[in-house]
Amino acid sequence: MISILVVDDLEVIRRQIGIILGSQRDLNVVAEASNAFEAIRNAERFQPDIVLLDISMPELNGLQAIPLIKKVAPSAEIVILTQYDNLFFVREAFITGAAGFLTKSDVPAELAIAVREVFAKRSFVSKSIASPTHDPPAANPRGGREPSIR
């Protein structure tokens, strides 16, 4: 069973994700958080396998939260879950330690796939970002996981 922490400032998004993941036998939402500070506390408490993390949140954004979450839950893999499909955010997410990047528009079709890929220690980037209109993200210059486009 893959344990998941869902972090988004919008309750409706957290609920939608919970419904999608709840339909999968091997995926279990163990906690939710509405901001980065709550995410850090819940990551430390629950030690999830996967953290689904929004970028745009009040006080501390998701990119800033990644190293703090990894500090308290080092085995947790981070999947950015965002409305942004800008390659700047994709690159920054992988540079700061994320293993996956999923746009909210791709959630229904790709959420469970992204979680399983990242849990298996493979990177994941939404298909909409991997489209011919986008250049692939650059390799991580800090030696982290290099994103692979599916």
Summarize the main sheet.
Answer: 6 strands, parallel
Count of separate DSSP helical elements: 5
Compressed to H and E, one letter per element, the order equals EHEHEHEHEHE
Number of domains: 1
| Secondary structural class | alpha/beta
Rg over CA atoms, rounded to whole Å, is 14 Å
Please identify, by name, the CATH architecture: 3-Layer(aba) Sandwich
Number-wise, the strands total: 6
Share in β-strands: 15-25%
Give the low-pLDDT segments. Answer: 134-150
Shape: globular
Distance between the termini: 24 Å
Percent range of helical residues: 25-40%
CATH homologous superfamily grouping:
Response regulator
Main β-sheet, spatial strand arrangement: 2-1-3-4-5-6
User: Which topology does CATH recognise?
Assistant: Rossmann fold
Can you characterise this structure?
This protein has one domain: Rossmann fold (3-Layer(aba) Sandwich). Helix 2 runs parallel beside helix 3 (62-72). Helix 3 (62-72) links the parallel strand 3 (50-53) and strand 4 (77-82). The protein has helices at residues 11-22, 36-46, 62-72, 87-96, 107-119; strands at residues 2-7, 27-33, 50-53, 77-82, 100-103, 124-125. The chain is of the alpha/beta class and 150 residues long.
What's the helix and strand layout?
Layout: E1 2-7, H1 11-22, E2 27-33, H2 36-46, E3 50-53, H3 62-72, E4 77-82, H4 87-96, E5 100-103, H5 107-119, E6 124-125
Parallel strand pairs: 1-2, 1-3, 3-4, 4-5, 5-6
Outline of this structure?
The protein contains 5 helices and 6 strands. With 150 residues, the chain is α/β, with parallel strands linked by helices.
